[in-house]
Fold:
Amino acid sequence: MTRRRLARDSSPLARCCCRGRRRRQAWLALLALVAILFTALPVFAVEPAERLADPALEARAEAIGRVLRCLVCQNESIEESNASLAHDIRVLLRRRLLAGDTDAEARQAIVNRYGEFVLLDPPVRPATYVLWFAPAGLLVLGFIGIAVWMWRRPASGAALQPLDTTEQCRLDRLLEETDG
Structure:
Protein backbone atom coordinates (compact mmCIF):
# COMPACT_ATOMS: atom_id res chain seq x y z
CA MET A 1 0.00 0.00 0.00
CA THR A 2 1.18 3.49 -0.68
CA ARG A 3 1.27 6.18 1.97
CA ARG A 4 -1.65 8.04 0.44
CA ARG A 5 -3.76 4.93 0.51
CA LEU A 6 -2.71 4.20 4.07
CA ALA A 7 -3.59 7.75 5.07
CA ARG A 8 -7.04 7.42 3.49
CA ASP A 9 -7.57 3.96 4.98
CA SER A 10 -9.18 4.32 8.38
CA SER A 11 -8.57 0.76 9.50
CA PRO A 12 -6.68 0.35 12.78
CA LEU A 13 -4.10 -1.85 11.09
CA ALA A 14 -3.15 0.85 8.58
CA ARG A 15 -2.83 3.51 11.29
CA CYS A 16 -0.76 1.15 13.45
CA CYS A 17 1.71 0.46 10.63
CA CYS A 18 2.33 4.17 10.03
CA ARG A 19 2.80 4.90 13.70
CA GLY A 20 5.13 1.94 14.13
CA ARG A 21 7.31 3.08 11.25
CA ARG A 22 7.54 6.61 12.66
CA ARG A 23 8.45 5.28 16.09
CA ARG A 24 11.18 3.09 14.63
CA GLN A 25 12.57 6.04 12.68
CA ALA A 26 12.53 8.19 15.83
CA TRP A 27 14.33 5.47 17.83
CA LEU A 28 16.91 5.02 15.08
CA ALA A 29 17.53 8.76 14.98
CA LEU A 30 17.92 8.86 18.77
CA LEU A 31 20.26 5.87 18.68
CA ALA A 32 22.38 7.52 15.97
CA LEU A 33 22.57 10.73 18.02
CA VAL A 34 23.66 8.83 21.15
CA ALA A 35 26.29 6.91 19.14
CA ILE A 36 27.67 10.17 17.73
CA LEU A 37 27.83 11.74 21.19
CA PHE A 38 29.60 8.75 22.75
CA THR A 39 32.19 8.56 19.98
CA ALA A 40 32.93 12.26 20.39
CA LEU A 41 33.46 12.15 24.17
CA PRO A 42 37.24 11.54 24.11
CA VAL A 43 37.64 14.66 21.99
CA PHE A 44 36.52 16.82 24.91
CA ALA A 45 38.78 15.20 27.53
CA VAL A 46 41.62 17.75 27.38
CA GLU A 47 40.16 21.11 28.22
CA PRO A 48 41.32 24.19 26.33
CA ALA A 49 42.61 25.74 29.56
CA GLU A 50 44.99 22.79 30.00
CA ARG A 51 46.58 23.13 26.59
CA LEU A 52 50.04 24.64 26.38
CA ALA A 53 50.71 27.62 24.13
CA ASP A 54 53.75 25.98 22.55
CA PRO A 55 52.53 23.35 20.01
CA ALA A 56 55.74 21.29 20.30
CA LEU A 57 55.45 21.18 24.10
CA GLU A 58 51.75 20.29 23.84
CA ALA A 59 52.57 17.46 21.43
CA ARG A 60 55.14 16.11 23.93
CA ALA A 61 52.57 16.32 26.73
CA GLU A 62 49.97 14.47 24.64
CA ALA A 63 52.49 11.75 23.71
CA ILE A 64 53.39 11.18 27.36
CA GLY A 65 49.72 11.36 28.40
CA ARG A 66 48.81 8.56 25.98
CA VAL A 67 51.02 6.09 27.92
CA LEU A 68 49.72 7.11 31.36
CA ARG A 69 46.62 5.38 32.74
CA CYS A 70 43.70 7.16 34.27
CA LEU A 71 43.55 5.78 37.79
CA VAL A 72 39.76 6.12 37.85
CA CYS A 73 38.89 4.67 34.42
CA GLN A 74 41.90 2.30 34.32
CA ASN A 75 41.58 1.36 30.64
CA GLU A 76 41.87 4.87 29.27
CA SER A 77 44.85 7.12 29.03
CA ILE A 78 44.76 10.42 30.86
CA GLU A 79 44.38 12.15 27.49
CA GLU A 80 41.11 10.27 26.82
CA SER A 81 39.61 10.42 30.30
CA ASN A 82 37.23 13.05 31.64
CA ALA A 83 37.87 12.11 35.29
CA SER A 84 39.03 14.85 37.61
CA LEU A 85 42.08 12.81 38.67
CA ALA A 86 43.10 12.48 35.01
CA HIS A 87 42.73 16.26 34.74
CA ASP A 88 45.04 16.70 37.76
CA ILE A 89 47.65 14.37 36.26
CA ARG A 90 47.48 16.20 32.90
CA VAL A 91 48.00 19.55 34.67
CA LEU A 92 50.92 18.13 36.69
CA LEU A 93 52.51 16.70 33.54
CA ARG A 94 52.24 20.00 31.69
CA ARG A 95 53.68 21.90 34.66
CA ARG A 96 56.67 19.55 34.74
CA LEU A 97 57.26 20.06 31.02
CA LEU A 98 56.99 23.84 31.41
CA ALA A 99 59.54 23.63 34.23
CA GLY A 100 62.02 22.15 31.75
CA ASP A 101 61.83 18.43 32.51
CA THR A 102 62.59 15.97 29.75
CA ASP A 103 59.92 13.48 28.72
CA ALA A 104 61.52 10.75 30.84
CA GLU A 105 61.82 13.02 33.89
CA ALA A 106 58.21 14.19 33.66
CA ARG A 107 56.96 10.62 33.22
CA GLN A 108 59.12 9.40 36.13
CA ALA A 109 57.81 12.19 38.37
CA ILE A 110 54.25 10.98 37.79
CA VAL A 111 55.29 7.35 38.34
CA ASN A 112 57.01 8.37 41.59
CA ARG A 113 53.85 10.09 42.76
CA TYR A 114 51.22 7.53 41.67
CA GLY A 115 53.20 4.27 41.36
CA GLU A 116 53.86 2.02 38.37
CA PHE A 117 50.14 1.27 38.07
CA VAL A 118 49.80 4.63 36.30
CA LEU A 119 51.67 3.17 33.29
CA LEU A 120 49.45 1.61 30.62
CA ASP A 121 52.35 -0.63 29.58
CA PRO A 122 54.04 -1.86 32.77
CA PRO A 123 57.74 -2.75 32.61
CA VAL A 124 58.87 -6.40 32.49
CA ARG A 125 60.32 -7.05 35.95
CA PRO A 126 60.12 -10.00 38.34
CA ALA A 127 57.21 -8.30 40.10
CA THR A 128 55.23 -8.13 36.84
CA TYR A 129 56.12 -11.53 35.36
CA VAL A 130 52.65 -12.80 36.21
CA LEU A 131 51.07 -9.99 34.21
CA TRP A 132 53.23 -10.66 31.19
CA PHE A 133 53.60 -14.45 31.13
CA ALA A 134 50.55 -15.92 32.88
CA PRO A 135 48.21 -15.69 29.85
CA ALA A 136 50.69 -17.48 27.59
CA GLY A 137 51.44 -20.05 30.31
CA LEU A 138 47.75 -20.80 30.82
CA LEU A 139 47.31 -21.20 27.07
CA VAL A 140 50.23 -23.67 26.89
CA LEU A 141 48.86 -25.61 29.88
CA GLY A 142 45.47 -25.78 28.17
CA PHE A 143 47.00 -27.21 24.99
CA ILE A 144 48.99 -29.75 27.02
CA GLY A 145 45.83 -30.79 28.88
CA ILE A 146 43.92 -31.26 25.63
CA ALA A 147 46.80 -33.28 24.14
CA VAL A 148 46.99 -35.57 27.20
CA TRP A 149 43.22 -36.06 27.19
CA MET A 150 43.19 -36.95 23.51
CA TRP A 151 46.17 -39.29 23.90
CA ARG A 152 44.64 -41.18 26.86
CA ARG A 153 41.11 -41.58 25.57
CA PRO A 154 40.42 -44.85 23.80
CA ALA A 155 40.05 -44.96 20.06
CA SER A 156 36.38 -45.13 19.14
CA GLY A 157 36.54 -48.28 16.94
CA ALA A 158 39.17 -50.28 18.87
CA ALA A 159 37.23 -50.33 22.15
CA LEU A 160 34.28 -52.25 20.68
CA GLN A 161 34.75 -56.06 20.63
CA PRO A 162 32.09 -58.65 19.80
CA LEU A 163 30.63 -60.73 22.64
CA ASP A 164 31.92 -64.27 23.07
CA THR A 165 29.45 -67.20 23.20
CA THR A 166 29.03 -67.27 27.00
CA GLU A 167 28.36 -63.53 27.16
CA GLN A 168 25.90 -63.81 24.26
CA CYS A 169 24.02 -66.64 26.00
CA ARG A 170 23.84 -64.67 29.24
CA LEU A 171 22.53 -61.59 27.37
CA ASP A 172 19.88 -63.69 25.63
CA ARG A 173 18.74 -65.17 28.99
CA LEU A 174 18.49 -61.70 30.54
CA LEU A 175 16.47 -60.39 27.62
CA GLU A 176 14.07 -63.37 27.80
CA GLU A 177 13.55 -62.80 31.54
CA THR A 178 12.63 -59.14 31.04
CA ASP A 179 10.29 -59.97 28.12
CA GLY A 180 8.59 -62.87 29.84
